[in-house]
Amino acid sequence: MDGQGVTIGRVELVDVMSGTIFVFLGVAGCLFAAVRRQGRVRLFAWLGIWSGIFGVRWLLYSPSVVAALPAWMHGGIPFVSAAIAYLVLPVASRAWLELSAGKMRVLLQAVIALSLAIAVVGVGFFVVTGSSEKVMFYNNLLGAAILFVLVVVVAVPRLARKYLVLPNWGIMVFGTLIFALEALHYYLSFFFHYQTWRIMGSLGLGALFFSFGYVAVQIALAGERRLLSIENELAIAQEIQASILPSGSPKVKNLLVAAAYHPMTEVAGDFYDFIIVDENRTGFLVADVTGHGVPAALIASMLKVAMQSVVGCADDPREVMSGLNRILAGQLRSQLVSAAYLWVDTEKRRALYSAAGHPPLLHCRGEKLEVIESNGLLLGVLPEADYPVWEMTVQAGDRFLLYTDGVSEPENGSGEPFGAHRLEEVVLMNQMREPSALLEEVLDGIRSWRPATAEQKDDITLVGIKVLS
Questions:
Q1: Strand runs (DSSP E) across 240-382, as ranges?
Q2: How confident is the model at residue 3, as a pLDDT?
């Protein structure tokens, strides 16, 4: 009896140690996945769940652990054990799914669906009959079948390259084969009704978890390297984009000019430029590419090149818009460009304006604010399009404001946009201020309107112009 007691104690100690280790690894994996929240890090989450439920199952083998639980929990332990026995296969298949590709993904998704159906039936039988073995045969048969497929795919390099995403093939072969041998031993014991050492299951699954964990770390590190590379490339793209924008406000006789440029991300689809013909004549372009990020920024860079080809007709907004449209038509795919162009001639005291699907120009004279819409089609829609021109006289004290729709679209906590009306109110309230101060007031108004926790959802560009004399 003493010898038997020692044997039982050792077995129980192995169960407790194994269960504790697997639960700890499971919690660690889930916490890591929760902190990182990246696509490939989901593998850590499913490994964590797999390890955690396996560890709980192991702990429930220990009478000491069960006895230490509150009395109200004892009645649910058989149900938990039955549920875990059926859930191991779909959770394990979900972990493998994170490493799969092509038809292997389809197969694993089918296994997950079928194993969950078996689990529902099996747990249902347990609730009704008290037995968890009614459909366990089918669960084990399905597990054996998918394990055989996985072993073949992992062991054959050509299949592994085609159907799995493995940064380290050798380590996965090692873990999978060790686990497969242990699983084969377990299934044989199940079919032929002989008892096995539970420690073998811990060692086999431990080898597989080690392989999975190693591969998951490799994938995470590769993701970090890709992210760093992308960040470096975005930094370079940001520098390039900054180089194509005006380096400062133009020094033009009788004009005071200020610009504000706030991209939503590192690179933006907004673009503005100044065409200084001489000390009295200047063109102002503001454009907005649909979309965000790198694709929009590339098209914005195209605008800089396109502008060089229309400099010769800078005094004719219709030709500027038509020229840009002809250059961009056929070059754009799913993206389009809105643009506005203002030509100011302080010597002749006139201004000309034309636009392509762009928010209106604001022209402020004294306490009067004029909203000028002179819109043709968005650039890139049709190769040939007409862009009407609006002509204005220019007086000392006149102010003009060009902007992109990122100014009027920010929403408050109720989902109400800042809107053109509020923009016009801000402009009128600050119409005597210098352009730089006016632009800052507009930006402050947007910041106050948008909730502090809300992120900027579009690029913001403003160009303010004051006629001095």
A1: 255-262, 270-276, 281-289, 337-345, 350-356, 361-365, 368-372, 375-376
A2: 46
Residue predicted with more confidence, 83 or 292: 83
pLDDT score at 99: 87
Per the structure, the complete domain to which residue 85 belongs is given by 2-231
DSSP helix, strand, coil percent of the chain (3-state; round to 5): 55, 15, 30
Establish if 237 belongs to a structural domain.
Answer: no
Residues 394 and 268 in one domain: yes
pLDDT given at position 1? 41
Distance CA 85, CA 63 (A): 18
242: in domain: no
The predicted pLDDT at position 260 comes to 92
CB atoms closer than 10 angstroms to residue 293: 17
Residues 141 and 271 in one domain: no
Say how far apart CA 441 and CA 447 lie, in whole Å.
10
Q: Taking phi first (over 0 means left), then psi (-120 to 50 degrees means alpha), and beta for anything else, what does residue 439 get? A: alpha
Q: Which of 187-201, 220-234, 386-400 has the lowest mean pLDDT?
A: 187-201
Pair (224, 255) in one structural domain = no
- Model confidence at 8, pLDDT cuts 50, 70, 90, reads very low
